[in-house]
Amino acid sequence: QTVVTQEPSLTVSPGGTVTLTCASSTGAVTSGYFPNWFQQKPGQAPRALIYSTNNRHSWTPARFSGSLLGGKAALTLSGVQPEDEAEYYCLLYYGGAQLWVFGGGTKLTVL
Amino acid sequence: EVQLVESGGGLVKPGGSLRLSCAASGFTFSDAWMSWVRQAPGKGLEWVGRIKSKDDGGTTDYAAPVKVRFTISRDDSKNTLHLQMNSLKTEDTAVYYCTTDPGSRGYWGQGTLVTVSS
Fold first, then answer.
1. Which residues neighbour B99 within 8 Å (Cβ) at sequence distance 6 or greater?
2. Rounded distance, CA A18 to CA A108, Å?
3. Pairing state of beta strands B10-12 and B112-116?
4. Is the pLDDT confidence value at A1 over 90?
5. How large is the average pLDDT for residues A55-67?
6. By CA distance, what is A100's nearest residue in B?
7. I need a labelling partner for A95 at 20 to 30 A (CA). Which of A53, B4, B47, B102 fits?
8. Residue B104: its pLDDT value, please?
9. Alpha carbon distance B9, B96 (integer Å)
10. Distance from B41 to chain A by nearest Cα, in Å?
11. Backbone angle region of A39, left / alpha / beta, with phi > 0 → left and psi within -120 to 50 → alpha
């Protein structure tokens, strides 16, 4: 069974920078996994932030950026705002099986 | 304005069936690959499955826990996506979200709650 792993929780100070990562049990994450990132606040539906590794949606603030880092997908928040406190999920595509798998989520606290 | 509006959720007994619908507007639905994602209470997101556009074959793919029991279909004439859920189990209890397949569109609905309980 394929497992996608994220940090369970991270804390960052307002104005700071934080990087969330997303690892695959099958090995290094590459652009071929088409990494997506989503933000979810309590009681709300998820909101798409990043697709295909590093592409922002039209509504995604520029302080959010996606990349590949050390064999993982990464989401970096620069100049963190209090409203960025949320759960963040990554999503990877496994083309051989034609399925998507979510990571377990990272709870980001802005403190 | 893009809208995805799910409906059809509710309480069902284990072993029962339920059909969810998702009404789409504000984009060319027939061109879009569509997915269903669910979230059990207090848990993370889980991809359920997807259907490709008819131009790309209209085929479906499913996550292992729902394969055989769930069926995704689409009615492009009504801009509507469906999720037929059979042989429901208590572990299928979740909010079910309709979304465009992960990619450049990034649209999500607000979700509909399915509770499987006796």
1. B4, B34, B35, B36, B37, B107, B108, B109
2. 9
3. parallel
4. no
5. 98
6. B47
7. B4
8. 86
9. 8
10. 11
11. beta
